[in-house]
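For the sake of transparency, this paper describes our internal protein records without simplification. Because each token names a local backbone shape, the row as a whole describes the fold. One such record is reproduced below, unchanged from the form in which we store it:
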Amino acid sequence: TVTIAADDWPRVSVAPALASEGAPIGPWKEPGVATLDVTLEAWVGRATVEYRTEDDTATAGEDYVATTGTLVFDRPGQLQQTVRVPILDDTLAEGTERFRLVLHSPTGALLGTATANVALRDDEISPAPPPGNPPPGEGQ
């Protein structure tokens, strides 16, 4: 018996993301949600991929909501989808933490970049003042 694995299917990949507990600053898209773009490099027919979140320095249930699901690419031209992971706001000063989104169990596609880190900005940490600007009350 010979099994031939398809190696000419398109790859499905996920890109890293930034998220913030509080108000969006800079590249953060919206507060309280991590948005991760999942792309299919070409459409050659229906493809699916499952996803799940995994802890790193951030903990599900404390810093973000554990999220699982299945993405379906089922029509020509549908090459990108977004996974939204709710971020939990807390009052702890923890600094930047991380969790990851993992793609797995594809059908009709192969895994490209299957894991993406999400950097979670803590809103309890005050950003440093810009260089050359003393903190209020100093240098006046």
